[in-house]
Amino acid sequence: MTTINQITLSDDFVDEVKQTIKPHWGELGWVTYKRTYARWIPELDRTENWSETVKRVVEGNINLDPRLKKDDLTDEQYDGLVKEAKDLYKLVYGLAATPSGRNLWISGTQYQHRNGDALNNCWFIAIRPQKYGNSHIVPSYLQKDQLAVSMPFSFMFDQLMKGGGVGFSVVPSNMKLMPVVDNAVNLTVLIGKESAAYDDSIAAGAIDRDDWLAEHDISTTRHYELPDTREGWVIGNANMIDAHFNSTNDGFKDVVLDITNIRAKGEKIKGFGGTASGPVPLIQMFFDINEVLNEAVGKKLTSVDCTDMGNLIGKTVVAGNVRRSAELALGGSTDDDFITMKQDKKKLYHHRWASNNSVAVDSEFKRYAPIADSITHNGEPGIVNLELSKNYGRCIDGYQPGIDDGVEGTNPCGEISLSNGEPCNLFEVFPLIASQQGWNLEEAFALAARYTKRVTFSNYDWEVSRNVIQKNRRIGVSMSGIQDWILTTFGNRVVTGFEPNTDPETGETIQKPIYDQRVVKKVDDLYRTVVKADKEYSKALGCKPSIKHTTVKPSGTVAKLAGVSEGMHFHYAGYLIQRIRFQDSDPLLKALKACGYKIEPDVYTKHTMCVEFPVKAVNADDPNFASAGSVSIAEQFATQAFLQTYWSDNAVSCTITFQPSESKQIAPLMYQYRHITKSTSLLPYSGADFKQAPKEPIDKKVYQKRESEVDDDVAEVFAEQNDNHDKKDIELVDQTDCAGGACPIR
């Protein structure tokens, strides 16, 4: 029996790996990594190098194994985990696979130990009165088991500020549970002169604290003095929301929130990193949400009201320069007010931009024409089939009634169907790179399953989350670079053609996709590998097997590290200019300029520079290569259906791109795949029709010319220029963890 219960990878092992394995950096890979995931190391006065990031991440994960905390840990168990940590290190260091962006940023940090929630990319919450329970946040005026309208909004606010995205449901069944708004509330925000943010806050509507106290009796109000914490922001908002309802208010008509202690704009945020946004966005949010509630007095809150409140929270979180707010609002498929709410341009530009909106459907739903029309004009709504998620894993495994009966919604990118309070829990393998680096794919996917399983043993802040995570142990093992892998390995795309078929329910003729059966068999084998690995590891840990195991995430930023196609998506173009924005003070700019990259001021944002990277897609010259600009909408639907049928028992994140001439196919294809597609969204293909577009298709000759102008390795030049000493808390601008821009960086 061993007394050692903490696993640390030795410097000798790391040095050995660095000598024998070369990371598969994509053309944007190292730059994206350095500005997005490399944490500051105070004692070394610089940011991490890739080897240090991977060491931190792997150690943070392997030490979540609950057996390491037990006295009966055996030498065999310990040695097995050490070997697994080494294998994981090799897998991730070589960029044959990566954990989610959240894990790359948080795993192995002190922040992880305080806030285990931060290891998960995204969450889901149902908007209806709920109890806070035994959570880290419980407003003092509430009992733990008391239902409160504020709870789902508090959950959302808290998770967004931790860097996670949040899906939320405002479907009719939830809205029926919302109580009538009883009270109009007179809201006052106070600030003391000692605050460095005093002048800005007064301009935003706050009132001088001393002047107000001289004329008012604070004991006749609901009063809360916000501490300078994330929890303080959340509880301040909860105080104001709950004062509108008699069941959570002791009769106060006045709410007074004192923001004096909140740090001013630009001050450092410890733990998570970055700089503070100051109290001004918070003040604006308090008044805006209070106005929504005051206008609803005497009525129940509607789906639009609740989405507005969620969007106003998201807007406030975005104002902090280190976090990205990702929200998905899920409404009813016949709720026209919800479906059309973004047509109010004033409110759209003010706050309604903060969520992607989808509608919940079932397999009996037929009204796809209005949805398709809205998508053609606005790119929304997406669709989420909760019935399929509740009763199916992979479609090939058939109807399994109630297999996932608690499902109520999805994360913002749509790859994981979730129960109330549940997170997505992601890891992705790049099968093409893994194969090229000599990995047995079954071994790589088994390591992925075990990694995600350990994340379910994190220290979660909310009771609702702890309960559902323990019940479901849901994991999401994903693969990315799917198009690259299939074309390179099998010589063609997975959809090899279509054949006429008859829809058994309608009698109409449809075009049924023909799939390469070699790909079907390989994907099926990999799925079974993940399920087996989870079953064996669950038995060793003494916990339930995971309710579901596999997914396809959109994989925006993480795919850029390895230079592979994003999730199931086709490359944007065979050759393109990828533009990435940097703060003008970023020390990377000097290295990029020295290497010959074109750099110019950003035309949209001050103090920001736009750098152009020439990029060639994997297999760009293959006659069977297809890009998002050339592949048909029918093949994209069929590819998503293939992955939902043979690989993903959760869901498949997919943003299908379409040309104007294909818009009439949207509704029929949605209907054709109604028994397969759990969630999908569509966007018109944009071929860089505005200045400094993030992606601009180019031809091969332009690519070769631009590529020839770039010399030297940016990482090497940067190291020479800075001796690896770079500035703290400078980050990439406008990068996301998802292809469609929905999910957060970190």
TrEMBL record:
Is Lyase there in the keyword field?
no
Give GO terms: molecular function aspect only: cobalamin binding; nucleotide binding; ribonucleoside-diphosphate reductase activity, thioredoxin disulfide as acceptor; ribonucleoside-triphosphate reductase (thioredoxin) activity
Record key words, sorted = Allosteric enzyme, Cobalamin, Cobalt, Disulfide bond, DNA replication, Oxidoreductase, Redox-active center
Record-listed E.C. numbers: 1.17.4.2
Q: Which GO terms describe its biological process?
A: DNA replication
**Claim: Disulfide bond is one of the keywords in the record:** yes
List, alphabetically, the Pfam families matched.
RNR-II_ins_dom, RNR_Alpha
Catalyses: a 2'-deoxyribonucleoside 5'-triphosphate + [thioredoxin]-disulfide + H2O = a ribonucleoside 5'-triphosphate + [thioredoxin]-dithiol
Residue ranges constituting the Ribonucleotide reductase alpha-helical domain according to the UniProt record: 9-109
Q: Active site at which residues?
A: 413, 415
Residues in B12-dependent ribonucleotide reductase insertion domain copies: 185-293
Kindly list the cofactors needed.
adenosylcob(III)alamin
Any signal peptide, and if so, which residues? Answer: none
Here the disulfide bonds are 122-424
Quaternary arrangement and interactors, per the entry? Monomer.
Family as reported in the entry's similarity comment? Belongs to the class II ribonucleoside-triphosphate reductase family.
Could you identify this protein by its name?
A: Adenosylcobalamin-dependent ribonucleoside-triphosphate reductase
Q: What is the lineage of its organism?
A: Bacteria, Bacillati, Bacillota, Bacilli, Lactobacillales
Record gene name: nrdJ
